[in-house]
Amino acid sequence: MSRPAETFSLLSPRHRLLAGLTLALSNFMVVLDLTIANVSVPHIAGNLGISADQGTWIITSYAVAEAICVPLTGWLSQRFGAVRLFILGMVGFGLFSLLCGLSMSLGMIVACRIGQGLCGGPLMPMSQTLLMRIFPPDQRGRVMGLWAMTTLLGPAMGPIVGGYISDNWSWHWIFFINLPIAVLCVFSALVLLRPVETVRVKLPIDYIGLALLVFWIGCLQIMLDIGRDRDWFGDPLIVMLAVLAAIGFCVFIIWELTEEHPIVDLRVFRHVGFTSGVFTLALCFGAYFAGIVVIPQWLQISMGYTAAWAGLATAFTAMSAIFVAPIAGRLVSKADVRIMISGAVVWIGLMTLWRAHWTTDADFWTIALPQLVQGFGMPFFMIPLTTLTLGSVRPEETASAAGMQNFLRTLAVAISTSLVLTGWGDGQRISRNEMVGRLNADTTIADLTSRGFSPDQARQMVANLVDAQAQVVSMDHVFFIAALVLFLAAAVVWLAPRPTGTVDRSAAH
């Protein structure tokens, strides 16, 4: 239960504007943190004395924690109230951001990133829900457009801000910058949003469902993260984690489908349109995120880019997407959304194939141009897909469907990060071995020695060249596989019937 929809009348236009800016800023901060650490992983790994592979736990731990918490948002907001949940989430997010910046070990920073994800998970859907409560219907379209702009701008600015801070200050500041924003948002919410608080309902807690959710996702993610270092299923621990994740997942499905008050409503998957839509979303985001993870690391490790320039090269996708998002929003009501989604996903797949031909001779614009062109297709995929998935379920199921949609999207990003980095690393070793087997190294070393290089210098130069080529060849293979996944996703969406109902996108998060 909640107060009447006319809660927007409880705030003056000035207070409404300030509250709207506060909510948009909070959403921007949360989505910024999804990507701000990507380009900073080499800095953090070097400072903490860990490998780059271990450093990716900093990315995946945040994503998985958020994935666990997002589907619980509906229950949490009813239990504690929307405004109270927003304030508590913002306080926790700020506190864990401080602890992330103070971390001196991998274990501490991963634990604090998990805390960040758990507290930040409800902030994105809550900011959208509260915006719908404080603005009248005739203004909600423009307001949600502003909210969508922050959602697109955050991932774009993350690599740039993270890169600049890592290069010029210290990686610790990528977390410390959240503190003043969190304090401002908490203070503003306490002053401005109290009148639009929702009524609290004491709901039964599905403890078993919650425990099973955390258990199987935790086992799966740990397996994916440490599998690269433990020869995957050649290690008994990995086998055990895989078995536990599979058993936990099966028990979770059975329990949630038979529980009277499930923590996650899985019954929405009975709608074919929703199921095909969310699997399309998961496949696309997983494949799309492959580039966001691999490209910055390749540019810094192999191409000599600073973190700031690596971030800028990867940010063009969201920059171009911002400009065409209004067009996509207007076309949704006039065209078959399946055509828009399928065409956009094919477009993104073609841009991924374009990247699959990169070499070590690629200059900045060779790298940035596919990112820029790809961005023109992103809104034609994201906005219509919300219409398709939420238009396929009953109105009373919209909130559960939106939560499940974001759960699968976030989980897909976390799994993709682990799988992509595993594939990239394995591909590098295979490519390097093939090159070494075919390379006439003795002749090359002799030629370099005759030009004044010492034998050690000559061997190191040859090894560096082979490593650089192996990295780019393996990365191109990753992009090729990602493109195939995208083309598959473009076909999966056609399993859905065309949505005919009016969609209430206010519950989407």
Automatic annotation (TrEMBL):
Q: Fetch the Pfam families from UniProt.
A: MFS_1 (PF07690)
Give an example GO cellular component term for this record: plasma membrane
| Recorded coiled-coil stretches | none
In what residue span(s) does the Major facilitator superfamily (MFS) profile domain sit?
19-501
CDD domains for this protein:
MFS_LmrB_MDR_like
At the top level, the lineage of the source is Bacteria
Q: What is the protein name for this chain?
A: Multidrug resistance protein B
Identify the species of origin.
Sphingobium chungbukense
